[in-house]
Protein 1
Amino acid sequence: MQLALNQLGAHLQKGLRPLYTLHGDEPLQLQEAADAIRAAARASGHTERSVYTVAGAHFDWSAVLAAGGSLSLFADKQMVEIRIPSGKPGKDGSAAIQQLAAQAAQDENTLTILTLPRLDKQTKSGAWFGALEAQGITIQVDPIERNALPTWIAQRLALQGQRVVPGEEGQRTLQFFADRVEGNLLAAHQEIQKLGLLHPAGELGFAQVEQAVLNVARYDVFKLSEAVLSGQLARVLRMLDGLQAEGTAEVLVHWTLAEDIRSMKRVRDAMAAGQPLPMALRAQRIWGVKERLFERVLPRLTDAGAARLLHSAHVVDGIVKGLPAAGWPQNGWQALRKLATDVVQTLQSPPPRMTR
């Protein structure tokens, strides 16, 4: 059974299930979800805890399978935690997990928690994950998206009795806070706790937050792609600065921008050949958030614009590899900023008028 993360608290108040699977790539929320399950388990008498980390293909699953029948003399119930950092249990692990899921349904004295990273669609369609869903509770833990981050920060401040001032200043404060911690939820949590130590309960002004909150944002090239397609130029430039400061390879950033340009060109060509947009997007393996962004920006992209962006991407490919080009910055990062700016501005231009 699948359960949304925000439903976990209400679920635990109604009673525990013997098997929980947490999967995602947001460490803070994974940790807090697991902590909530552990707290409920301890309150229900699960006093003994054992932890197994699956490392490598030669992990001994027999110890995990035997754990359910190995209660100590001093414990009525136990928790068994299995952590699979790779998300790939292997052939033996797949069989063991299916057996474990079947055992969990029959063992009221053992509560099992599996923790996994973000899983792709193929992995989630496997037999072992299907067994976990059928016999227990699975919770997908997704990152907090940038547009939801100010609300999340406000909620966390409220938990410690603090709030930003109402009105425009408060919104500016939350946006500033979000810019400082984007992509780094653990650090955001620490900065919120710091504000709780520095200031009493009540309202926080912009100056108080500005002085206290460090710039701990962390960016990745996949979020850069979403920011470009969303037309958020200021955020794009800030992310490029952050990626440069973190030592991200210029060629990786260029590949991300160029791949989006190539994909948009391919989709346009497919549509020109009579293929429906949904089919063209699927053929280019574009789905999820990026699919919705493509659907929004493609009507604004002309054939001439797509050709120009493709040429610019080719030029910048040479620049980041040490080949200067007339009319372009010689510095690779400056060239990437110019390319990203051009893409944003092109995709934000009004759609072409239809002529009869």
Protein 2
Amino acid sequence: MDLLNTLVDKGLRRELPTRAEALAVLATSDDDLLDVVAAAGKVRRHWFGRRVKLNYLVNLKSGLCPEDCSYCSQRLGSKAEILKYTWLKPDAASKAAAAGVAGGAKRVCLVASGRGPTDRDVDRVAGTIKAIKDQNEGVEVCACLGLLSDGQADRLREAGADAYNHNLNTSESTYGDITTTHTYADRVDTVQKAHAAGLSACSGLIAGMGESDEDLVDVVFSLRDLDPDSVPVNFLIPMEGTPLEAEWHLTPQRCLRILAMVRFVCPDVEVRIAGGREVHLRTMQPLALNLANSIFLGDYLTSEGQAGHADLEMIADAGFEVEGAGEVTLPRHRATAGGCGSHEDAGCGSHEGAGCGGHEGAAGGCGGHEGAGVCGSAPAPAAAATAAPAPQADEVRRDLVSVRRRGAGTDIAPNA
């Protein structure tokens, strides 16, 4: 296919596709899907080999957010029966982080619900960063605390943060339909503040909120303009009790096309499969590793993910390898660029064991359980005579969504 040959050539040269080319990727047929994955896979392997970076989320403060983001189970007015707790103490957060690091995570992502941190909150998070780094040698920390005020990004950097996450989530033209308590411009401003402070910027999107192909291309091109080191791709978890609980429009094929489009537009950037991979990609998750070079290990913020050991088995079975602490995530030209990653011990991408991470605390996760293998699936009964029909778009799969009841904020061991 001429389109795919063109996109591979551009990806290897770090040349931006046209909008028409990006839209054409999303419009390809299921018959051409494996060709699309193979083409985008060439670009992924050129810049990142067969390495998969593991990231681990710690929800420092859960629920009771004053913002009204429609996708979020922690939003103002949410009826989702999630865990609700105030700030974790530094030692509790460090203990949670250590579980992820022990499971192979290179990056710990510290997330807190809310519009944005107060200066006191920044001090609190600074203490947590110190505790984590003191007790977990070589770990990198990404903070995700909402909208930043002037000077706060610099203070987080001074405290030892390597990266800051704040997602754009959707296109500027549709942002007001999703959130009314802050603006798209507010989000762009926070990403720019992170950049200016020398933090590695991490910013991505949420697919599956009813957006058009044009919206998806718009937000990915906007991300490309912001030039983050990492682009997490979330697939909406329609959590009960949120305004988007009925939005079940994604198929595994659609998710793969979205990931391929992101890879072509951001060829040399860490593309992470974030919230919702287990729910929407399901048994196609291993194929998605040909497109993305990064995933979250274990659970998400308010919902459960695939068992941590199943993540590791999936990576190995698909012929990939977990990125080690002695490997640099980003390609050399990005790792040696100005800002974060420009010098030894600078943070994301700058040294052995570098990278970028985090995702904004919105997209939830999936309803797997310990030892479940593919998320949400239990071993099939021996007497089962016929397989269940393949799930279709718009089919509600509540069986794949489970509220997190373990890990941070509980007395139960985390999933890592």
Protein 3
Amino acid sequence: MHTRNLLLTYVLSLSCVLSSPLVLPDTLRVLVAEEVPVKDCRLSFVNRTTYSTQRPGVVAYVPREGANIEATKVVVKLQDEVADANLKLAEARAETDIEIQSAQKSALAAAAEYDAAVEANRISSASNPVYPSTHMTRLRLDAEAAQLQVEKARHEQHLNQLAAEQARAELGTYHVFAKDKGLVTRVFKRIGEGVQQGESIVQVVNTETMRIEGFVDVEAVEKVRVGMPVRVTFQVPGSDAMKASKPYTGELGFVDVSVQNLSRNVRVWAEVSNPDGLLREGLDPTMAILIEAGGQSQ
């Protein structure tokens, strides 16, 4: 199947540069048995993204119009000095365990004092103990309370670690990363301007893939299936007659399940690669669905 598509692309290319009709050899002529025309075609970019932020703020960085953006790189940044300082403070609190060490020392001291009192009472006469029972109860409770302070200090450190994670996540809301590479086509906000949550800031378009959407007559729609090859041509502005049509091949990606009431048409679309960047929105493309001889494309 892959080899046949390559041959088909090569033949279509030849047909667009020759001044006379192309006569196909018998071995290639059987590739395409029928072409289903697609009407009212329009081109659009598949990957067009308008970026905004999760929070209000002041723009600190935005790329210029026409800049190329790489995936995962920062495409928008808000002023984040306060959030960054809060993160550093939270991380410093989360990293120290001095409160735990201090509580452990206090717990050891309280336990030692209680043990000393127990020992003093043990070696004294039972009728005349060094420490009365009320004093022993207080020392025991002090030792238990000191141990609870150790647990409290550990819990506080855990809360500080969670606070650091929260501050890190909050700092992340000041930065927007590109989900795909592309070209900056619109800049809605400049550096120093304020933005609200969800407000459009910059638009990035990936031009490598185009979608061609159009309509097929309802009488012919039973012949087409998702995955069938398509041929797309368009008039190259400023070119001579021999090179006025450039072929692209792609694959049918969608056939609607409903029929337009008035026109009795069915909406379809296909996607084609645009490696040379010649396909642009606004051009008038022509598309045909290619039905292969001997069966449907898989």
Protein 4
Amino acid sequence: MNKNLIIVRGGGDVATGTIQKLNRVGFDVLVLEIDKPTCIRRNVAVGQAIYDGEIQIEDIKAVRCDNIDDIETAFENSNVAVTVDPEGKYIKELQPLAVVDGILAKKNLGTSKDMAPITIGLGPGFEAGIDVDVVIETNRGHDLGRLIFEGFAQANTGNPGNINGYTRERILRASDDGKLHIIKDLGSVVKKGQAVASVNGNEILSGLDGMVRGMINEGTEVFKGMKIGDVDPRVIPRNANTISDKARLIGGGSLEVILIMKKRKNL
């Protein structure tokens, strides 16, 4: 077992809150992604390194790695390593101290307690004590970030978090099957009814006045109704380039779990 290695499945914006915390305190962090991540808040998602080769998010740097040598070099430079490995082959090969499932698929895509001495699941889809050691609540509200040692996180409500009274209106969804074309990218200020993107010429309109905070990559293959971005009613430009309050809080919970379980299991 490598006591300094944490493997995180998924490199989206919420998982990046956990990745930042772990990297900051000195753990080596390896992030396992799919070959074409659909990062919505791509400026603050380490998964974007799969496309760009590297990404700087606040005080951490994530780099794409295609083999073990690349991963070791990333760690030597105190960087986060990001690689394509949806099956999790590196988990068995590298034997980390902990595995964090941060895919946020609302269901378990294959994470199990026997993967590492410490296992954590973010959000619904996992049973604490059975699938993973601890589940962390990801639903906004009083229990956001709560550590669950037995049972489940709250079920997926299907409703986006409330920001300034807006929920579903904030979400941008694909208007057709095909390749996405961006009209208004991250950080753009838009009006309700304004076109922010299109698919096959069919426009995707903003549901409110605000700022584009999330938008997947240009040319991504999408399907009709797929979430492709979001608009924030708070027009604060730095919010497009900084980790969210939700991601930070969940990240703190992940670090807390690792410290608790290290003590409990005498690792």
